[in-house]
Amino acid sequence: MHWLGTVSLANRCPYCVTAHTVLLHATGDHALAERIARGEQPEDPAHRQLLAWGQDMSTSQPFPSEQAPEYIGTALTFHFINRIVSSLLTEDMLPGGAQKYRLVRSVAGRSLARTVRRELVPGESLALLETEGAAPGWAAGTPMGTAFGSLRTAAHLGARLLSDEDAALVRTSVAAWDGVAPLPLQGEGLPDRAERPGARLALLAARAPYRITDEDVAAWQAPPFTDHCLVHLIAFGAICAVERIEANLTARTEEHA
Fold first, then answer.
1. pTM for this prediction
2. Residue 92: pLDDT above 80?
3. Of 54, 135, 185, 196, which residue is least crowded by CB atoms under 10 Å?
4. Active site amino acids
């Protein structure tokens, strides 16, 4: 769990970084939780390797190949979650920024200890899925593959809120992206707020969700669009980014095969 914080750090999602720290407290490893909260490296070399991979998935995978679907799927899922959170929430996980205090983080973690430490059965929650989708090759035949395929299908539904031209613009821009560089706020890369607000929102959600402003949302969210629609649009941009990162990871894996 500790390594997921670096995924959130790479995506500039302070809310999620705090959440990872609190959940790490819930496991009982309070010292490690605070080391990561301070931006320090863990003492355990295996933990350091996982942190490095979470921040840059181009590095060699520090886990057995049979565990790759779980690690890769979890990392990609948090690339998606980070974008949803950064787009729709503030940086503070708790009211008044109370999460900045170590005692608060620790107490919050302890309150979740029973939930976090419970035994989980792989695939148990798949019955809750309402959509289906093809599992990716890196997780074929696993519960993670089924879940990821369903997430992909559901998130792409948000493209229906855009014109064909705007949806194509988002896909083309993200496909040409390197998976790392943020989207510039000026220039040819970002559509004008007044002219193409939906495409602008989806692109920002993909490449720089922390740069979305209230003005960006207001420019697009006029009747018949609702908050429900906003979540779907942001999800479309987020999944485009996740698929670009996934493509980079798959290409590197094939190179080293």
1. 0.91
2. yes
3. 185
4. 16
Name the residue with tokens 């490893």: 29
pLDDT band at 215 (very low <50, low <70, confident <90, very high): very high
Q: Are 167 and 203 in contact (CB under 8 A)?
A: no
Cα dist from 184 to 37, 81, 172, 187, 211, whole Å: 29, 22, 16, 7, 10
Q: What average pLDDT does this structure show over 49-66?
A: 86
Return the exposure string of 143-176: e unless at least 16 CB atoms fall within 10 Å of the residue's CB, then b. Answer: bbbbbbbbbbbbbbebbebbeeebbebbbebbee
Contact in structure between 235 and 166 (CB atoms under 8 Å)? no
User: What letter represents residue 204's amino acid?
Assistant: L
Q: Are 2 and 35 in contact (CB under 8 A)?
A: no
For residues 13 and 210, the answer to whether their CB atoms sit within 8 Å is: yes
Exposure of 186 in the CB half-sphere (CA atoms within 13 A): 0
User: How far is residue 66's CA from residue 47's CA, in Å, rounded to a whole number?
Assistant: 19
What string of DSSP letters covers 176-187? TS-SSSPPPSSS
